[in-house]
């Protein structure tokens, strides 16, 4: 099968998200200029550089009360900081609860009964029991083609790792089983690993 996106796929559901998968989930915590707190998941997310460490996530929709974007991007525009929390399988329901299009006054930490802690390098909360959290300072917000598409880039200024996720000096993802996004309403989790060495290693 071949199709051009502008012509449509002719299938019952859009296959694009299913093709580009699995995708890690950024559970992005932000604090508004007024001190309000927000927590929302984004699956267009990845690390983009080692030195200095940098990450990005993309927001692709908008809310009526946020002038063409969502609470997360609006808060980052105002404050210049955000925290990306890694989602473990055990927190899948809490993460899903925070994905709703809640009013901008809604504190998703409270809504989903998630314990928070203050970040150390930025003025923002983080998910207290997340396997890892990346404290970030905004480097740029890039407007992408499409009415509400924005890519947010940040430099990591602090990294929190849960002690039980460290094994023999390495961050072991099998200790918490990271959640990943697939297509449609589907998710998966990492439960086992295998290694491949590069030819020049």
Strand-residue fraction? 35-45%
Largest β-sheet summary: 7 strands, antiparallel
The total of helices stands at 4
Structural class: mainly beta
Unreliable spans? none
**Overall structural domain count:** 1
CATH architecture grouping: Roll
Query: What is the class in the CATH system?
Result: Mainly Beta
What is the CATH third-level topology name? Pnp Oxidase, Chain A
Order of strands in the sheet with the most strands?
A: 3-2-6-9-10-5-4
List the helices and strands and how they pair.
Layout: H1 16-19, E1 23-24, E2 26-31, E3 37-42, E4 45-49, E5 54-59, H2 71-79, E6 81-86, H3 92-97, H4 108-111, E7 116-118, E8 125-127, E9 132-143, E10 150-161, E11 166-167, E12 170-171, E13 179-181, E14 187-189
Antiparallel strand pairs: 1-13, 2-3, 2-6, 4-5, 5-10, 6-9, 7-8, 9-10, 11-12, 13-14
What does this structure look like?
It is a single chain. The chain is mainly β and 201 residues long. The chain has a single domain, classed as Pnp Oxidase, Chain A (Roll), CATH 2.30.110. The chain is 11% helix and 35% strand. It is built from four helices and 14 strands. Strands 3-2-6-9-10-5-4 form a seven-stranded antiparallel sheet, with helices on one face. Strands 1-13-14 form a three-stranded antiparallel sheet, with no helix packed on it. A two-stranded antiparallel ribbon has the order 7-8. Strand 9 (132-143) and strand 10 (150-161) form a beta hairpin. The longest helix is centred in the middle third of the chain and has 9 residues, at 71-79. The radius of gyration is 17 Å and the shape is globular.
């Amino acid at each position: 099968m071949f199709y051009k996106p502008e012509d449509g796929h002719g299938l019952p559901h859009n296959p694009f998200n299913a093709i580009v998968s699995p995708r890690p989930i950024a559970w992005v915590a932000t604090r508004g200029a007024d001190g309000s707190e927000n927590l929302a998941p984004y699956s267009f997310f990845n690390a983009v550089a080692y030195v200095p460490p940098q990450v990005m996530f993309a927001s692709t929709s908008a809310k009526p009360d946020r002038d063409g974007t969502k609470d997360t991007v609006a808060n980052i525009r105002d404050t210049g900081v955000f925290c990306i929390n890694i989602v473990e399988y055990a927190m899948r329901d809490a993460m899903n609860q925070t994905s709703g299009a809640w009013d901008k006054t809604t504190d998703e930490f409270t809504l989903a009964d998630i314990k928070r802690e203050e970040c150390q390098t930025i003025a923002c909360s983080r998910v207290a029991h997340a396997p890892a959290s990346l404290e970030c300072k905004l480097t740029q917000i890039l407007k992408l083609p499409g009415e509400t598409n924005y890519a947010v880039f940040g430099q990591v200024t602090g990294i929190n790792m849960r002690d039980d996720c460290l094994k023999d000096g390495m961050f072991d993802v099998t200790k918490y089983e990271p959640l990943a996004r697939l297509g449609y309403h589907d998710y998966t989790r990492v439960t086992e690993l295998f290694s491949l060495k590069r030819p020049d290693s």
